[in-house]
Amino acid sequence: xxxxxxxxxxxxxxxxxxxxxxxxxxxxxxxxxxxxxxxxxxxxxxxxxxxxxxxxxxxxxxxxxxxxxxxxxxxxxxxxxxxxxxxxxxxxxxxxxxxxxxxxxxxxxxxxxxxxxxxxxxxxxxxxxxxxxxxxxxxxxxxxxxxxxxxxxxxxxxxxxxxxxxxxxxxxxxxxxxxxxxxxxxxxxxxxxxxxxxxxxxxxxxxxxxxxxxxxxxxxxxxxxxxxxxxxxxxxxxxxxxxxxxxxxxxxxxxxxxxxxxxxxxxxxxxxxxxxxxxxxxxxxxxxxxxxxxxxxxxxxxxxxxxxxxxxxxxxxxxxxxxxxxxxxxxxxxxxxxxxxxxxxxxxxxxxxxxxxxxxxxxxxx
Length: 366
Ligand code: MRU
Fold this sequence. Notes:
InterPro entries: IF-2B-related, IF-M1Pi, IF_2B-like_C, Initiation_fac_2B_a/b/d, M1Pi_N, NagB/RpiA_transferase-like. The protein is 41% helix and 16% strand. With 366 residues, the chain is an alpha/beta fold. The protein folds into two domains: 5-156, translation initiation factor eif-2b, domain 1 (Four Helix Bundle (Hemerythrin (Met), subunit A), Up-down Bundle); 165-363, Translation initiation factor eif-2b, domain 2 (Rossmann fold, 3-Layer(aba) Sandwich). 5-S-methyl-1-O-phosphono-5-thio-D-ribulose (MRU) binds next to α3, α7 and β9.
């Protein structure tokens, strides 16, 4: 089926807006994902330190959304206060990059976005296109918007490529929330093929595991798909194997926080388990991510898997469900080795094994 990107844009109009830039007063507004699905409240940010904190606290989360937020965090570094010289502005940007990069360790998009913003600023100063801080600020705003717009188009392209993997009547199992809330655009990565299929009248439904401990599946994936009228069923994390064994799942589609050269996929804890079961049962497993999620330099041993507060496990929404002092191990991502990955779906095309040869080829990078 030939699908035109512009035509698709007219058909897919997501209702949620997780990231808003308010230009009149240079303020970043984030839909507070800690409060969803019960309250839609925006948090207003005006400096990089509180932007980094918002990422840490998971007011915003999901790899591409973290990247876009960090890009605006860089804008905020020079948007307020009177920074007199371009040299001082560059210093502020380096400080902002350093603070934002400590917010969370696993999603590659964060480091990719802050580096891209800093490089653009340095180039603008060195080649004279920014003659003062006001001009530099405008260039930074345009770059952050470009990151957002590119992400939006990339997700539609992932949806178009991913459509090849969806048949009428299919059910897709996902993990966590790799939807529009996780990317900031309202579309998503793992959910992009589903959204495109739905927009074209192809019947497709989603099974969302609740994704303990933060419950991204129960609170966010289910919510955003219901808002957009896409059929979704919530299951417990422990039901994953059973639903696949019962033949209720045609494919697994997940997002990614980072993908390495040999095809290792870092994603929300529980993804590896889905991949192994899918492999055992002959169900295809796809990781769907934009090229900003690919890290072709790091090795498995270089990537830090974030471990979060033990109370996220001991409690559910503030209510203790285990002895108060029980020791807890709370890694929030896992890594799926390439042998379990059927294909990677990107905005530049579908990548099949061997990944070390085909990732550079499809993404046109070395
Ligand atoms: O801890 P989170 O909620 O930031 O984890 C999010 C995920 O694991 C997503 O699947 C991933 O970032 C891809 S988002 C399109």
